[in-house]
Write a structure and sequence with these properties.
This protein is α/β, with parallel strands linked by helices. It has 2 domains: 150 residues, Nitrogenase molybdenum iron protein domain (Rossmann fold, 3-Layer(aba) Sandwich); 111 residues, Nitrogenase molybdenum iron protein domain (Rossmann fold), CATH 3.40.50. The strands form 2 sheets. The protein has a 4-stranded parallel beta sheet with strand order 2-1-3-4. The chain has a 4-stranded parallel beta sheet with strand order 6-5-7-8, with helices on both faces. Strand 7, helix 10 and strand 8 form a beta-alpha-beta unit. It is globular and about 60 Å long. The N terminus is likely disordered.
């Protein structure tokens, strides 16, 4: 005979959400929006840490080994995560979001990215890494149109994994996409006045934002993997500063500011700080929208 306690336990067990891990804070925010009211995803890489180079802590490795689903951008952003994903449980699923259908994908300029070694990934034959992302810019979340595609990919994965909550995931996804559509409209409106302004960023991580909203970056100090710029690159950038007189030079708190300070000397340029990872924002469902609005405000305030 079923008791009330056994019925409650059965319902709870049936409705229990999967253990979900997201690699970086912007992706974690999108996943959290889809999972609202069902469960909360775990964040693997803290927003204050650069994802381009990170060593997993024991607690982070433990979260991975207990995961049912892992959402990660891909080896183009976090190559160090590949081997860790090989240690997932057999029934766990790792979703490489760079493979999502419908994304607008951009590549780096080959002359800026030459010397990057992607050959180390060629020998992997597991189901996550059967393709090459060499030269691909992985900062896909900085275009809200791409974020809408990611929302669908996340919701579809979770609905298949957790049929009991499939409708909730899909409803949450539709709500999230409505918010993203308004975010696109607002950001296009806000950036109209700065489309012809020239500026310099610390690292080449803003192509998606720039392409969507028509901004005119002059050059990046560091490449897309945030490798420390050499003397030759800094000399070339200083020449660009002299020729174009950019209005702003943007730094990032994750990286050293000395190159920025050096370039500012003797110019009328203003320094401002961009936050493409949301490190100044509390992780969670609202981080993504706040991140994009903060980026927009920083660009417009400095470039106007």
């Amino acid at each position: 005979m079923l008791t009330l306690a056994s019925i409650v336990f059965s319902v709870k067990a049936h409705a229990q959400s999967p253990n979900v891990v997201a690699d970086v804070a912007p992706i974690h925010s999108l996943v959290a929006q889809v999972m609202k009211g069902v469960g909360k995803p775990a964040l693997l890489v803290p927003a204050k840490v650069s994802p381009h180079g990170h060593a997993l802590k024991v607690s982070q490795m433990r979260a991975l080994t207990q995961a049912d689903v892992v959402f990660w951008v891909g080896e183009a952003l976090t190559p160090w995560l590949e081997k860790a994903l090989d240690r997932l449980p057999e029934d766990a699923e790792a979703v490489e979001l760079l493979d999502a259908d419908g994304l607008n994908l951009l590549t780096y300029d080959t002359d800026e990215e030459e010397g990057d070694d992607h050959d180390e990934h060629e020998d992997h034959d597991d189901h996550h890494h059967d393709h090459d992302h060499a030269g691909l810019d992985p900062h896909i979340w900085l275009d809200p149109a791409n974020a809408k595609v990611l929302i669908d990919a996340i919701a579809n994965t979770l609905a298949q994994r957790d049929a009991a909550n499939a409708e909730r995931y899909k409803t949450n996804a539709e709500t999230a996409k409505e918010t993203l559509e308004k975010l696109l409209t607002d950001t296009h409106s806000a950036t109209k006045a700065i489309k012809d302004k020239r500026y310099i960023v610390y690292h080449d991580g803003y192509r998606y934002f720039e392409a969507q909203f028509g901004l005119g970056r002059a050059v990046a100090i560091a490449d897309g993997h945030a490798a420390k710029p050499g003397a030759k690159r800094l000399i070339a950038i200083r020449k660009t500063v002299s020729e174009l007189s950019p209005r702003c030079i943007f730094s990032e708190s994750q990286f050293e500011t000395r190159p920025v300070q050096s370039l500012l000397r003797g110019t009328d340029a203003t320094e401002a700080q961009l936050d493409p990872m949301g490190q100044s924002i509390e992780p969670g469902p609202h981080l993504y929208e706040t991140l994009i609005r903060n980026l927009t405000n920083t660009f417009t305030r400095c470039l106007k």
